[in-house]
Structure formats: C-alpha cells, structure tokens
Hints:
Blueprint: H1 9-19, H2 24-49, H3 59-65
Amino acid sequence: MRITVDIDAKQLASIQKETGSRKKSRAVRCAVDSYLDGLARRRFLRKVLDGGTDYPLTNRELEALGTYDAH
C-alpha cells in the first residue's frame, strides 16, 4: 500500500543507518516491523508477569537456556 508520510530528514537518515538500508521505503518498513515486534514482546511480557499465561518453564529453567531478552 502506498501512502505519503512526512518524516524528518535526520530521522530518516538515522533509520536508514540503523537498518542498513539505502532505500527509504525499505528502511521505513524495517522500522515499522521492529516497532510492532517490540510492542508484541512487551504485551507478551506483561501477560507473563501478570500471570496470564501457563508457560511451563520456571524462572531458573528459563535463565538456564540463556536465550531470553531482558528488555
């Protein structure tokens, strides 16, 4: 889908640098994907911390895996 969006030139340059993309559209898509992924992670973490899941591993077992994201 095509849309027109006003983005500050410095912000766009930062997005392109962070994503490693020379193409503006690709850089913006990567930024949006990253943002949505972060929201989903935070939503899941909040659900876990509130006891809203039945995740089978204990904290100690999860830490032993060493593959969790602390943010």
